[in-house]
Amino acid sequence: MPYQLLALDVDGTVLDPEGQIRPAVQRAVAAAQAHGLQVMLCTGRRFRSARTVAQSLGLTHPLIVHNGALVKALDSGQTLYHCYLSPDVYQAGLDLLSQVSSPMLYIDAFHDGIDIITASSDQTHPFQQAYLQAVQPHCQMVTDISDPPLQGVVMMSIMAEESRLQAFRSDVQATLGSQAHVNVLANKSYQGSILEILHPSVSKWQALQQFASQQGIAASQIVAIGDDANDLEMIRGAGLGIAMGNAIDAVKAVADHVTLSNAEEGLAHALEHIVLKT
């Protein structure tokens, strides 16, 4: 087999539309590992929630989380690589995001039990309120976030309707310019979409390449599978890029193959009929 590293998105790829790992997917990932592939999750999720998925799949390799802003050891939670948001964009980012909803600060503080810091506000969007309620055990509510927290800020984000955030994204990117990278992604586990502000060099592909180079693995030896805009670069750059059947058109356009959707166990199909037969 010419491939050594398998990079998997989580939501929309590993997980079905109900957020579950189907038995066929579990078996296919196990088979990939048995064939000698190193399997890594590359996700926009927080480490805490991505870790649960990785453990359910029986993975052992580090996790690429927050779209590449962090690489963390699965067992220990140690940060192996980070690319925190620059303090220079902190206040401008807060001012911009506050126009739509109360900003959420994602921080690198797994061992402190805190993933998110946000301020209590009547302006928090209802979609975001539902999310914060669900992650409440690892969310710190404060009265003021005007001063940066002591921990590294991985990203700032808000949640709202997709149409509203897509229209707002260009304004945020134009204001912050080359100092930040701005994503709008589907919020697959909750309602609406997510707008994220990250360090400009952050991407899943950048973090994946760095890990691969440390292992002596070339880009041509990587398989990447995903569905959303944050997967596009790694699917285009990998030796074998596979788009899920439920992927956005831009991702399908750069992929070498398009598999079935996550409702049809597309990841299992891709591994069994494309990757493991190569």
UniProtKB/TrEMBL annotation:
Q: One MF term in GO for this entry?
A: magnesium ion binding
Cellular component per GO, a single term: cytosol
Q: Which InterPro entries match?
A: Cof (IPR000150), HAD-like_sf (IPR036412), HAD-SF_hydro_IIB (IPR006379), HAD_sf (IPR023214)
Q: Which domain of life is it from?
A: Bacteria
Residue stretches in coiled coil: none
Q: Where is the signal peptide?
A: none
Protein name, per record: Haloacid dehalogenase
- What is the species listed in this Swiss-Prot or TrEMBL entry? Entotheonella factor
Q: What is the lineage of its organism?
A: Bacteria, Pseudomonadati, Nitrospinota/Tectimicrobiota group, Candidatus Tectimicrobiota, Candidatus Entotheonellia
